[in-house]
Automatic annotation (TrEMBL):
<dbReference type="GO" id="GO:0005524">
    <property type="term" value="F:ATP binding"/>
</dbReference>
<dbReference type="InterPro" id="IPR017871">
    <property type="entry name" value="ABC_transporter-like_CS"/>
</dbReference>
<comment type="similarity">
    <text>Belongs to the ABC transporter superfamily.</text>
</comment>
<protein>
    <submittedName>
        <fullName>ABC transporter ATP-binding protein</fullName>
    </submittedName>
</protein>
<keyword id="KW-0067">ATP-binding</keyword>
<dbReference type="InterPro" id="IPR003593">
    <property type="entry name" value="AAA+_ATPase"/>
</dbReference>
<keyword id="KW-0547">Nucleotide-binding</keyword>
<dbReference type="InterPro" id="IPR003439">
    <property type="entry name" value="ABC_transporter-like_ATP-bd"/>
</dbReference>
<keyword id="KW-0813">Transport</keyword>
<dbReference type="InterPro" id="IPR050166">
    <property type="entry name" value="ABC_transporter_ATP-bind"/>
</dbReference>
<comment type="function">
    <text>Involved in beta-(1--&gt;2)glucan export. Transmembrane domains (TMD) form a pore in the inner membrane and the ATP-binding domain (NBD) is responsible for energy generation.</text>
</comment>
<feature type="domain" description="ABC transporter">
    <location>
        <begin position="22"/>
        <end position="253"/>
    </location>
</feature>
<dbReference type="InterPro" id="IPR027417">
    <property type="entry name" value="P-loop_NTPase"/>
</dbReference>
<dbReference type="GO" id="GO:0016887">
    <property type="term" value="F:ATP hydrolysis activity"/>
</dbReference>
<dbReference type="Pfam" id="PF00005">
    <property type="entry name" value="ABC_tran"/>
</dbReference>
Length: 279
């Protein structure tokens, strides 16, 4: 696997190769005022190693986004702890970049200024911030679009800018909540390949939420399947497919075996979730 550093020296940034270690220790999240509040996640422990690419799968409403938001620091667990690189997560931070399904770019800023925003806010000089933006624009293949505004780009291009914007903070962890969910099938397939190429150039742990089993297997080193609410981990499956990956692996025997296993688990949990909703 070719995992070279994304030229941080040029931008004056260096990071230990071992950052991006995530530990969830018996995390429960309740929404509501007291212990009778509805539990979205229950007593969940999980360890994700530096630079791992982990996909979270599970039925709708099982707590995937809640778990991601706990790592991001947007939600504080009702009990248990989340640690990233040994530090307890208490609030959002630039070392944990987030990419949402909705592109969430600043519509009034150019593509280049959207990407430069994080480094500027972190106190970098404008010239440095723009150099970082240019570096990531090149990485995502949109150097020719630096002066455009988000509304002038396709959905896939906007999402590439969203990824570049998160990476411009040189995060140790990249959290992605169904980032390709709003894209058509062809664009989505191109984005998956593009993401793997980008990931091969940066030293970042990725936690990626999706409903799409093919997408999860294509991208991940490891797939974590969650139960119907309250979410718990019911399967933790390695994906032993070689990298770099091409769409040919969709017909590989190992791919199909993992797909059957994941689909069976998700179907069983989706049935439970459906029955819970109709009670
Ligand atoms: N802010 C909130 N207040 C109250 N309940 C919430 C809140 N956020 C999420 N929930 C509830 O927590 C549960 C888990 O939601 P979450 O969005 O994490 O699931 P999900 O697996 O990401 O769902 P989907 O796949 O449909 O996006 C759901 O029952 C949801 O209604």
């Amino acid at each position: 696997m070719n995992r070279t550093l994304a030229q941080p020296a040029k931008a004056g940034i260096s990071r230990s190769a071992q950052t991006g270690h995530i530990v969830l220790d018996r995390v429960t999240v309740r929404f509501g005022e007291d212990v009778r509040g509805r539990r979205a996640i229950f007593d969940t422990s999980l360890e994700i190693r530096p630079r791992e690419f982990v996909c979270l799968l599970g039925p709708s409403g099982c707590g995937k986004s809640t778990l991601l938001n706990c790592i991001a620091g947007y939600i504080r667990p009702s009990s248990g702890k989340v640690r990233v690189d040994g530090r307890i997560v208490e609030r959002p931070g630039p070392e944990r970049g987030m990419v949402f399904q909705q592109y969430s770019l600043f519509p009034w800023k150019t593509v280049r200024d959207n990407i430069a925003f994080g480094p500027l806010r972190a106190g970098r000089k404008r010239a440095d911030a723009l150099a970082i933006a240019d570096h990531f624009l090149e990485m995502i293949g949109l150097s020719g679009f630096s002066k455009r505004y988000p509304a002038e780009l396709s959905g896939g291009m906007q999402q590439r800018v969203g990824i570049a914007r998160a990476l411009a903070n040189y995060p140790s962890v990249l959290l992605m909540d169904e980032p390709f969910g709003a894209l058509d099938a062809q664009t989505r397939a191109m984005m998956q390949e593009s993401l793997l190429r980008i990931w091969s150039e940066v030293e970042t742990t990725v936690v990626f939420v999706t409903h799409d089993v093919d997408e999860a297997i294509f991208l991940a080193d490891r797939i974590v399947v969650m139960s119907a609410g309250p979410g718990r981990i019911i399967a933790d499956q390695d994906v032993p497919l070689l990298r770099p990956r091409s769409p040919d692996i969709l017909t590989d025997g190992t791919f199909i075996r993992i797909k059957k296993s994941c689909l069976a688990k998700i179907r069983a949990e989706s049935l439970k979730a459906f029955q819970q909703q109709n009670r």
